[in-house]
């Protein structure tokens, strides 16, 4: 039997599964509409990347022109501190724009590759699918260790903490989108994680309104990252898609966003409570260590274990009452409680000699008995 390569081409169709208990035409229409929406979103993301690249090139061209003017003016005139500062600023801007340009070109290349891998269907089968041969080489994946992840997160937060906090305080969708457009490097897991840390700190400080505001922005970032993982693209290239969708979101999508936000706020409150309880325990342990007596016993714990008569003598600071209470006890029991009082610092003998004399008297009394 002769086989053809076309036998293995997968053509996506809305009518591949039928069920006698389902309204088939409605099912087909629903599938077709959902697929068209996915195709539109994918196309919009590509257009956004192309637009971002064009804007980046325009800004780079302007910055390079400004840099050229500054360098020429630098040759003609004597050195000026303001001119030098402006020159350094523009040089840094040019370096950043060149880096962003390469990043957008890479994301566009990945987007086009993803487009070529999409299955054919009744809406795109007449369109060009392949324009050149590509060798599919699986990239070597390198898993980061936990230590490397922590170092990466710490370095990122130290560098961009101020920018992340500013994003956390934004309230309008348009403001958030513009800020991420100006700072695309913030669209990453490190930003989402640090926003949650800020939320916990606010909750511990009982700044509940601020916690809820930053939690909202944390969910915004998380939705962008989740969308990027689903589509297997760089999150810096799809955050505009999220804002376009959330601003015109239908009820199920908005409900999903609100539900995730409430779950995050619950986890933040629980984590803050746990941290406060842990801090209280540490504080109590520190206080306990400070009040330990010479024998290493806690005076509070020892006091609570004493008989009522002994507790009353310490409450009233009555030495006579203390001696009478000890004399009423069994000699061994009395020595036990007295030793505990001394080791915890509740009872401080006048001197070591008094202590030795008391022990000698106890031994003599025992011999007489």
Automatic annotation (TrEMBL):
GO terms for molecular function: heat shock protein binding; protein kinase binding; protein-folding chaperone binding; unfolded protein binding. It is found in: Cytoplasm. It comes from the Eukaryota. Residues 5-133 form the Cdc37 N-terminal domain. Keywords: Chaperone, Coiled coil, Cytoplasm. Residues 348-369 are annotated as: Disordered. Residues 291-369 form the Cdc37 C-terminal domain. InterPro entries: Cdc37 (IPR004918), Cdc37_C (IPR013873), Cdc37_Hsp90-bd (IPR013874), Cdc37_Hsp90-bd_sf (IPR038189), Cdc37_N_dom (IPR013855). Signal peptide: none annotated. Residues 126-287 form the Cdc37 Hsp90 binding domain. One of its GO terms (cellular component) is cytoplasm. Residues 39-107 form a coiled coil. GO terms for biological process: protein folding; protein stabilization. Co-chaperone that binds to numerous kinases and promotes their interaction with the Hsp90 complex, resulting in stabilization and promotion of their activity. Forms a complex with Hsp90. Belongs to the CDC37 family. This is Hsp90 co-chaperone Cdc37. It comes from Dicentrarchus labrax.
